[in-house]
Each structure stands twice: as C-alpha cells, then as structure tokens.
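Chain A, query sequence.
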Amino acid sequence: MNNVNTITNSKRILVIAGGVVSKLDAFREPAQRLGLNVVFASLYELSFFSEGTGEKLVIKVGDTDIADFDIIYIRVVGKRLEIASVLVSYARAHNVRIVDHIYENPEIMPSTISKAMEMKMLAETGIPIPPTFFGSLNSIRKNAPDLLGFPYVIKGTVGRKARSVWSPATVEELDSLIKELRPLEREGANYFAQKLIKAQTRSRVLVVGGEVIGGVVRPTKFRKRFLEMVDGEYPEGVKDTLVDVPQSYAELAIKTAEMAKLDVCGVDILHEDETDNLYIIEANAAPAWELVKKYVGVNVEEKILQFLAK
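Chain A, predicted structure.
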C-alpha cells in the first residue's frame, strides 16, 4: 500500500478517514518526527473475500489485515457508516482498540453520526444542554412553540450539521420552513428543536485524550435575534482565542467528551449572557481544528498521535 509510514515502533497504528486519504496528510510529518509506525488509509480501501465455505474471514485495508494493528483512529466516517461498521466489528473481535471508543458500543448508529443520539446521550448523563424537543416536523410545530418559545432553533440530525440549522421567529416562518423541509423528512431526514440560548458567542474547546489543548471563540449564528442595534447597527461579533481555557469551560468540555465516549472531541459551549449558565450544543467527534492550530499554536495532529502512541 502506498500510504504506509514504516517506522520502528512497537505499536502499529491505523489512522483512517471516510473520504480520500489525502485528508490525513497533516498527520504524516508529526508521525515521522515522533517515530511512529502509522498507516494512513481510507475506508474505501477496506476489503474482504470469502469462498462461502465458513473459513476464517480476513478483512484488510490495502494488503494489511486489520487484526495486525494495535489501535485504530477513525478520523471521520462521513457517508461510509456501513463500511465503518464492518471495520469496527472486525476490530472488536480481534481486540484492536478503537478511537474514538464510542465506536465500541453496539448502537445501530453512533452519536458521532446522529445528533439525536448525541443529545440523548448528553441529556442522560447530566450534561447541560438547551431545552430540547425531538420529533417529527408536525410534532415540532405542535409542541415546540409552547415548550421553547419563539424564536427557537431547529436542527437536522445528520449531514452537514452547521448548515442544517434554522431559527423561526414566528408561526409564519415556521410554516414556511416546515414546507421546505417536509420533502427531506419523507426521504428519511430527522429534526429536533432547541431553545435559543441568548449567548453572543460560541466557544469551541478541543479535547484530546482527556486533555484540553485550546479553543476559539466565535459569534453565534442567531445573535441578532436578541441583540439590540446601536446607532442602527448590530454590535460586531466577538472573535477570540482560548490559549488558556477557563477552568469552568475546560472541566465541562472534558466531562462532555467523557460522557460522549469521545477521545478526540470538539465541544461547543454557549455562555448565556444574562445568567452565566453554560450549555453544550455539540460534542463533535470529527471537529475542524485549523483555527486552534493557527491561533493557539498547537500541532493538533501531533497531540492526537502522541495520545494514540501511549
């Protein structure tokens, strides 16, 4: 296979992505510098052959038996959930450690893929999330206005989560949105509603192996729903860098990652302006960390590889 770093190290590590293997290129230099034996691959490269006679099945990535690895880090599954399920099932049967260890659980769809599963898991384990209602679009229309009050937020449970977010402020806006989303619901899409937390900023805190390595602060998408104009303009959105993450944020982020069973996790925290309450709105197993690398000055890929090599 062309994507192998053959470096002397006792532990064999597989880092695998749902899409093209070039998405993992940023891991290559730190892997070589740390002297790690790492294979970089795509879920597209998984294969197995059976003659149908009940012989021992071998699942390979390229030419390498998955059972030959000591630890596997699934960077992102994307649309390859079916193949990832085959990988995880085989790895578990051969006592190969999976990161994130959420994939070691038997759910049909893990919380790394489904926001509904993610919210369920966080709510059950005592992580503070905004008041949330899950149900069909008809159920959301019937129940959410009384439970959450206008404006509230509607989110899709799968796909490109940041883009599958809306905030109807009136019944008319809600009805128009439901009309737009209903064909997608008929095709299998699911949605849930959450109270709109009046927080001007959202903090993304990155956790690797139970350790906070930094974070960034960005404006919330719907802050103009509750902010007042000053001289005819809305206040400019705040952008900041969390080199030293506040202790309350760090503790909550670490607990959230632990409860979500994620070893590598981007935790999104809302700090309610008026109450100082903290709410978790996402525990992302495949977070974008370019801003943390750029502004915090930490090599995220190296931190992950160090964790995998422990």
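The two ends are 25 Å apart (CA to CA). Residues 131-195 form a domain with the Dna Ligase; domain 1 fold (CATH 3.30.1490.20).
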